[in-house]
Amino acid sequence: MKISYISNSTIPSRTANSVHVMKMCEAFSKLGHSVTLYSSPGTDKDPFEYYNIEHRFKLQYCSRPNYGRLGNLLYARNVCNNLIESDVIYSRYIYPMAILQNTGSKLIYEAHQPPGHLFGKSVEKYTYGKESFEVLVTISNSLKNYYTTEFGYDDTDKIITLHDAADPIDESVEKTSLDRATSLHRLQIGYVGSTSKGKGVGFILTLAKHVKDHQFHIVGGSTKEVESMYGDIPSNVACHGYVPNSETGRYIKSFDILLAPYREKVTPANSDQDLSRYMSPLKIFEYMSSGNPMICSDLPVLREVLTHGENCYLADCGDVHEWEQVIRTLENRNIRVEIGNQAYETFVNHHTWERRAQELLNYL
């Protein structure tokens, strides 16, 4: 089957959405399909090496004029002009879908958040009403419920939920060398991800002040960046700066405990839209793939994947003492191993990129 995957991502870049689309295209291609990904160009680095994926599919760059929302519409037109004949057009960008109604291809749109403005919502409603539109993919049941309510979808009609995913961390990947203390009781507690508001980096700094006998690590922001956003950094916190996605597995494997301290409000870059009700973060699946235990904020949408006391520990996102208590519980190595193993089992059975791609193909 020929699949055209339309992305609004800049590739390669630091964004999580660029990781998602590259991994999905790789997964479709591994399942034997011919895939062409459409995106705008990013840095001059080799994109396949940057994301540590096999060069199994085509990457077609399309220009995006720097004219704000008009530039986005022009980019959508450029994508459509470059599109090759396909059996399926899969998109994470709604504007091209509104144009591509008479191609003879099945149209699939993947939503990661509700439309951010009335124009976007109107374009989505127009697209979903067309005969060629096949299915809407949402990344959480919460987001699916939004669409069934706001767009009048029948619960089983042209809408499915596919949570995000990750790749298993290659067993040959060596752990990152950390400055481990001589005491065997000093745990290495790590966070890998963005330092933007809502992701919980400031909370980690507070937590580190309460748990002074263990070492904390922030992978995703330099010391200067973290200080400029959140103030003084405790002496038991190390900031490792930005690390390409191809390298994050080395850090994730190295930590004894992994942190995902999302706030009550989580916003994407350059937006005030709150995603905390709808998100399916790549981070939690990457953490689960390591077989190491995770502490995560107890948000309802994350309970769709995570179960407290089984494959993770969930804690009140505003209660630093509860997080400290969980860390004390995880000082027991047997508990860490048990939780980490269950997390890996959940991941490998349900949340790899290939399983995600296959589930969609099974639906089709």
Protein architecture, described:
With 364 residues, the protein is of the alpha/beta class. Helix content is 36%, strand content 18%. It folds into two domains: 160 residues, 3-Layer(aba) Sandwich (Rossmann fold), CATH 3.40.50.2000; 163 residues, Rossmann fold (3-Layer(aba) Sandwich). Helix 5 links the parallel strand 5 and strand 6. Helix 1 packs across helix 13 and helix 7 crosses helix 11. It is globular and about 65 Å long. The relative contact order is 0.12.
Q: Return the average pLDDT rounded to an integer.
A: 92
CATH fold-type name of the largest domain? Rossmann fold
Task: Count up the domains.
Answer: 2
What's the CATH superfamily of the largest domain, by name? Glycogen Phosphorylase B
Kindly list the characteristics that best describe this protein.
alpha/beta; Rossmann fold; 364 residues
Task: Please outline what is shown here.
The chain is α/β, with parallel strands linked by helices and 364 residues long. 36% of the residues lie in helices and 18% in strands. It folds into 2 domains: 160 residues, Glycogen Phosphorylase B (Rossmann fold, 3-Layer(aba) Sandwich); 163 residues, 3-Layer(aba) Sandwich (Rossmann fold), CATH 3.40.50.
